[in-house]
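Blinded run. Sample ID left blank on purpose so nobody reads anything into the name before looking at the predicted structure. Input follows.
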Amino acid sequence: MRTHAIKRHSLLMLATVAALAASAASAQVPSKVQSRHDAVEKADVAAQDARQARDSAASAQAAATAAAQTRQQGAISERGAIAAQATAQQAQRAAEDARQASQQAKRASEDARSAQAAATAGSNPTGAAIEARAALSEARTANAIAADAGSVARAAAAATAEANQLPDRVIAPPSDGRSVDFAALDANGDGVISREESRAHGALSANFLAVDLDADGRISASEIAAWRR
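Blinded prediction complete.
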C-alpha cells in the first residue's frame, strides 16, 4: 500500500509540473507578441528622432552659412570683426556637432529597424525588443544633442550680425556706484548670464559682446568683474 501511495504521489507531482510547464509555454505567446509590437513601436519612434536630428543639423548648417556670409560683409570696427569671427566659428562648430549627432541618430534608427526585423522573424523577440529599446534611447540622445547644437548655431549667427555693428567705444558700467547684481540677472540660476537675461541691465546688454570675452554667448561672474575694473 505504501508503495502504491508513493507512486500516486510521484505521478501527481509529475502531472503538476507538466501543467505548470504548459501554462508557462502558453504565457510566452502573448509575451512574444508584445515584444514584437514593442520592437516595432521603438523602431518607429527612433526613425522619427532621426528625422528630427537631420532637420536640426540642416538648420544648424544654414545658420553657420549665414554667419559666415554675415562676417564676410565686414564689421564697422576692429573689435566687432574679432567678435564676428569668433561667433561665426562658434556657429560652424555647432553645425558640425549637429551633423555628427544626426549621423548617430541615423545609425541608432537603423539598429532599431534591424532589431524590429529580428523581433518579427526571430525566435527571441524579447531580446530583440530590448535591443530596439536601447537603440531608441541612443537615437533620442542624439536628437537632443542635434537640437541643442542647432540652437547654439542660430544664436551664434544672430550674434555675428550684432558683432558687425559693435562700435569701438565700450559703454562704461553705471557710474552711480551701482554694481551688477549677478544673482538677480541670472534668472535661471545656471551660473552665467545669457543674452536674454542681460537685457534687464541696459549697459550690460549694450556691451554684451565686449564683456563676453570668450565669445561663448554667456557672461560669467569673472567677465563681469573684468568689465567693471
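Unblinding after everyone has recorded impressions. The two ends are 105 Å apart (CA to CA).
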